[in-house]
Amino acid sequence: MAQTSIWQQILDYSHRADPYPLYAELRKTPVVQAEDGSYVVSTYREIVALLHDPRLSSDLRNLPEQGADAPAQAPEEGPSELPPTFIEIDPPEHDRIRRLLTRNFGPPRRPARIDSMIPDMFEIVTNQIDAFAEKDRSGTSRVDIVDDFAYPFPVTVICGLLGVPREDETRFQALSDAVVKAADPTTGGLAERRRRRAEARADLGQYFAQLLNARHGRRSDDLLSGLIGGDGAEAPMPREEVLSNAALLLTAGHETTVNLITNGMLTLLRHPEVLDRLRRGDEPDLAARVVEELLRYEPPVQFLSNTRNTVDDIEVAGTTIPKGSPVTLVLAAGSRDPDFVPDPDRFDPDREHNEHLGFGGGVHYCFGAPLARPETQIALTELARRLNNPRLVADPPPYRTSPGLRGPRHLLIEIDGVNPAQHRPP
User: Fold this and answer.
1) What's the Cα-to-Cα distance from 14 to each of 10, 238, 403, rounded to whole Å?
2) Most exposed residue of 56, 115, 261, 288, measured as fewest CB within 10 angstroms of its CB?
3) For residue 255, what are the contacts with CB-CB under 8 A and spacing of at least 6?
4) How would you write the pLDDT of the chain (426 residues) with one tens digit per residue?
């Protein structure tokens, strides 16, 4: 029988709880060709170089077998495909859409939007932790950090930002799950996964179209209203582009943050000395440093699988990746590259220099990073301050199936009660 490659072992669910020893093996050969013909890059400097290389495209229509008119672009039946999102195209079109999104999300037009959301984030977190105390008044109680906290918090935040009714969650979550599953390389070939993703995204687009139609032209202060009714040289954004990118933001705006918060709490429980420091609250910048280290040490996005392709031959670490090849960038392996960061397998929020690939890099640097950072800082700080004697029920916990969007599916902990809230944003 043929020997299973390191990459296939990484994709196998049996290694989901701890893929990092396999990443160390993978880094010994910075560029390997996977069984499906794609090229896998795993070392820090090579990943950074590719993230900034215009010869590495994000537009999968550049792949020879895909093409602009390939049937995999859209399902044969059902809703028509939306235009590509801004993370699926290259400059200059990428830059135009990202500028329009940014004008309604942050600086320069809305420099205070995220800061203005912090009190609401704090209130959501406070209410969720208060609910822990209601579950069992006998003393010791058990909670699931995922279902009871890490999932509902960012969902509520992104719904408020976009102007999506929270009561529609059951409707859009099934579609969001389908988009995430289509990104999992273990669930089928590239063409088939693109077909499923296009179908799910088109259904999400229909949801947003119905949402906008129900407003009857009424505008509010949410992101959707800003895009539809924006002004300026490039505004408003065309309606189809609004629907496509709103579907992306709804999905990406909570899926990755759920994993970041859950991975963070798991890591803190495994490092009680850091949890104690966060609980004491006498280091004002500790939460920020903890989150940056988590993005390096236990990132929610482990790799970008077949979302990039070469538009020219590129030589990487002595290997030539031919034009028209899909490329997988293993961000989590790069962030633990010992040739770049000392003692990479140690969780250390006191690192003097902490550069990482947790939010990617280059023109596609994570759009939601300014929101994910304060969400996670507030969440972990309040969990540390308010939970009495939190302890894991099972270690490792059960993980989600996806190897790329990696995080526990459940994180059961026991606590001996809940401390009162301090009633102020951290």
Assistant:
1) 9, 45, 10
2) 115
3) 176, 180, 300, 405
4) 457 999 999 999 999 999 999 999 999 999 999 998 999 999 999 999 999 999 999 998 888 765 433 433 333 333 456 889 999 999 999 999 999 898 888 766 677 889 899 999 999 999 999 999 876 666 789 999 999 999 999 999 999 999 888 888 887 788 788 877 777 788 877 778 778 877 888 888 888 888 888 876 677 778 888 888 776 677 788 889 999 999 899 888 888 999 999 999 999 999 999 999 999 999 999 999 999 999 999 999 999 987 899 999 999 999 999 999 999 999 999 999 999 999 999 999 999 889 999 999 999 999 999 999 999 999 999 999 999 999 999 999 999 999 999 999 999 999 999 999 986 554
CA dist 163 and 235 (Å) reads 19
Token pair 């140690």: residue: 346
Classify strands 391-392 and 412-415 as parallel, antiparallel or unpaired: antiparallel
Q: How many Cα neighbours within 13 Å face the side chain of 26?
A: 33
What does DSSP assign to residue 314?
E
Q: Can you tell me the distance from the alpha carbon of 268 to that of 270, in angstroms, rounded to the nearest whole number?
A: 5
Helix-helix angle 190-214:239-270, to 10 degrees: 110
Alpha-carbon span 210 to 292, nearest angstrom: 38
CA distance to 128, 132, 424, per residue, from 123 (Å): 9, 15, 9
126: left (phi over 0), alpha (psi -120 to 50) or beta: alpha
Q: In what order do the strands lie in the sheet with 391-392?
A: 141-144, 412-415, 391-392
**In 43-186, alpha helices (H):** 44-51, 93-103, 113-135, 145, 152-162, 169-182
Place of tokens 């031959």: 313
Nearest 5°: the CA angle 197, 148, 166 is: 55
304 Ramachandran zone, left/alpha/beta (phi>0; psi -120 to 50): beta
Q: Give ∠ CA 287-49-37 in degrees, rounded to 5.
A: 105
Alpha helices in 30-112 (DSSP H): 44-51, 93-103
Structure tokens at 195: 């077909």
What is the DSSP code (8-state) at residue 341?
S
Provide the token pair at 59.
Answer: 């537009």
